[in-house]
Amino acid sequence: MQGPVGPIWMVQGKAVGRVLQRAQPSCSVLKDLMRDRPMTVSTITFTTDFGYADPYVGAMKGVALGINPDALLVDVSHAVEPLDVVHGAFVLANFAPFFPTGTIHVVVVDPGVGTKRRALAVQTEGQVFVLPDNGLLTFLLRDAGVLSRIAAETPFLDPVEVDVPDSWRVIQLTKEAFWRKPVSPTFHGRDIFTPVAAHISNGVGLAELGEPIDRIVCLNIPVPGWDGDTIEGRIVRVDHFGNLVSTIPNALVPPDVQVLVAGAIIHGLAPTFQAGVGLLALKGSSGYVEIAISGGSAAGALGAKVGDVVRAAR
Predict the structure, then answer these.
(1) Which single residue of 67, 108, 144, 251 could bond 165 by disulfide (Cβ 3.0 to 4.6 Å)?
(2) Per-domain boundaries in the chain
């Protein structure tokens, strides 16, 4: 909106830009207009597999703002592969640590919506996650050390229940007073997870939302370790560029390691994606060894997919 002396800024429905431009030495006008605003703003993030073409994300954000108009809503991604819990878990683990203490994360990749799968609010070290109990917290549980307790014969990516880490609180959402009504059996993101997150942002305690539980679903993604001169991991993510993200931690591999994947052998780690021609192995930004092709798709070149074995040898 343009005024005679420049743009007019709108604060709580009032035009203040022109006044501030004429009285810049004093911020009293802005302070008066903002005096009823909260000193802190709760941040709620949204991560889903809903895509961007449909109204689902907008409906969730509308519900959130209807409960807490002052919440800061952040879209992380709505391009998680449809129904791909592993992808959702990978995305969650790679953005959540960068958000400040007190952030509330709504994560909805929910192939079991409407079934007996549980709805949870999970408090970890300083953040809260509101999501289905289907393995979306796998990488955070992995970092907490619980995957070492899963039986070795459990197939890769199989869901299993594990003990909740000592520093976490997990609440099964059962108090319908904090849900939107009526609840659609196909849209818990709008009717359960988002309203619960918004109520938490308004100060509702987790204990008010349901009952504490001490077991949670986790996908079996073992943490690899050296067995003699080799270490075996799996491809856990094929990213947007066709890079293959393995489960082998960067910290475990020396620069002169050999990486074997899909019949190919890569000698040593490259420092960047542009460091050579052909297949490259390098320490990825997610904390795990990646296989890439400079300017191309390693997944396409190798025909590799999630679950394929990756070996490193020294």
Answers:
(1) 144
(2) 2-34, 43-219, 226-313
Instruction: Report which of 302, 229, 208, 291 is spatially closest to residue 263, judged by C-alpha positions.
Output: 302
Three-state SS for 206-268 is HHHCEEECCEEEEECCCCCCEECCEEEEEEEEECCCCCEEEEEEHHHCCCCCEEEECCEEEEC
Phi and psi torsions of 203, nearest 5°? 105, 5
Q: Residue 30 and residue 20: Cα distance in Å, rounded?
A: 8
Residue 85 tokens, joined: 């819990």
- Asked if 291 and 306 count as a contact pair (C-beta separation under 8 A), the reply is no
Which residues in 54-89 are b (16+ Cβ under 10 Å) and which e? eebbebbbebbeebbeebebeebebebeeebbbbbb
Q: List the pLDDT tens digit at each of the 314 positions of the chain.
A: 444 344 434 444 444 443 334 344 444 443 443 334 444 689 999 999 999 999 999 999 999 999 999 999 999 999 999 999 999 999 999 999 999 999 999 999 999 999 999 999 999 989 999 999 999 999 999 989 887 678 778 999 999 999 999 999 999 999 999 999 999 999 999 999 999 999 999 999 999 999 999 999 999 999 899 999 999 999 999 999 999 999 999 999 999 999 999 999 999 999 999 987 899 999 999 999 999 999 899 999 999 999 999 999 99
For the structural domain made of 43-219, what CATH number should be given? 3.40.50.10790
CATH, domain range 226-313: 2.40.30.90
CA distance 202 to 195: 11
Q: Which residues contact 23 (CB under 8 A, 6 or more apart)?
A: 29
Contact (Cβ atoms closer than 8 angstroms) between residue 71 and residue 64: yes
List all residues 6 or more positions away from 51 whose beta carbon is below 8 Å from its beta carbon.
78, 79, 82
Structure tokens at 102: 């007190």
Read off the pTM. 0.85
